[in-house]
Amino acid sequence: MRGTVLTYDSVSGDGLISGNNEQRYHFGSADVHSDTSLLIPGAGVDFEVKGEAATSVFVLPVLVNFPQREPSSQGMTITQGRNRVVASALALLFGVLGIHKFYLGYKKAGFIMLLVSIVGVIFLGLPGVVIYAVAFFEAIIYICKTDEEFYDTYVAQERDWF
Known about the structure:
Elements: E1 2-9, E2 14-19, E3 24-28, E4 44-50, E5 53-59, H1 84-94, H2 99-103, H3 107-120, H4 126-144, H5 147-156
């Protein structure tokens, strides 16, 4: 079952988890199979239920909680190489070359943008202007999304365009 840590006392080793089924489960430090320093209020956990107790408690990576659209109580942001601010800046500065697509891991979309830009030079740059407009709008979309929405849309769901 998945849930969220409500409290954890490192001195006594006792804690409380709120399960996704809206039930609360007590656990002890002996039940935790992760670093106990990660048991902060709001941390996502995976656990097994035995009666009214949680056993085999594992702390989940922060990114697993983003699709739930719950704000992080610790103010954590995405730090695994796909940041919306960086993607937006790349789209504004080098969008005509599709660099932001490569940054997000979309090689096919990046090559399409790069190829259209290069071929566009032959046609007096008109296709490049269209590609830059696409990149500009994508930059605006990226920067207007929250970190959680950005992760859900462009990392988890792997949405290539807009």
